[in-house]
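Homework help board

Subject: predicted structure for assignment chain

Our instructor gave us this sequence and asked us to write out the predicted structure in token form, then describe one feature. I got the tokens but I'm not sure how to describe them. Can anyone check?
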Amino acid sequence: MKIASVAEVKSKFSGYLRTSQEGPVIVTKNGRPVAVLLAVTDEDEIERLILAYSPKFRRILEAAEKQAKAGEVMDHDEFWESVGGEKQGTRP
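My token output:
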């Protein structure tokens, strides 16, 4: 892991992009961390990062967790019936 100031990263951005392939680059401003430069190796990783920081997705997960804790769950077959799909493992 490398630590660099905003000014350093700004002046040598391409180099820090290469460095991020080896591990995260912590970007600091006035000595305090303000950002992390991460290399992305595939599209799935981008999607995971976006979802991890999505306020809307977090609200959906929190609501689902509350429902599960309250016992408001449906079994596998109920779920597939509710979305109009076929049950897994069955064929027409």
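Reply (TA_rk): Your tokens look well-formed. For the description, you could write something like this. The chain has a mean pLDDT of 90. That's the kind of observation they're looking for.
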